[in-house]
Design brief:
elongated; single chain; Nuclear Transport Factor 2, Chain: A; five-stranded antiparallel β-sheet
Length: 79
């Protein structure tokens, strides 16, 4: 069993709400993507409050296709 699988009965699921390309440099082979996602954690059969997060990803073109170079969680403004 992989060591990163929690043994406390919890499970995490997420889905992308929206995503878009914010920058594309075809000559350099780089792209930047912004996304918003919802993350749900269930522990002992009880769903915890849904978390929403924003992410910034940097992609790099390689010989085998586009690969994730970096992933950063962005701050979420509170109202």
């Amino acid at each position: 069993m992989p060591s990163d699988v929690p043994s406390d009965g919890s499970a995490t699921a997420g889905h992308v709400l929206d995503a878009g390309l914010s920058d594309l440099d075809t000559e350099a082979g780089t792209a930047k993507l912004l996304a918003s996602a919802e993350i749900t954690v269930t522990k002992d059969g009880t769903a915890q409050p849904i978390r929403r997060t924003r992410l910034a990803a940097t992609m790099t073109r390689t010989a085998s296709g586009w690969k994730l170079s970096s992933l950063e969680q962005l701050g979420v403004a509170r109202s």
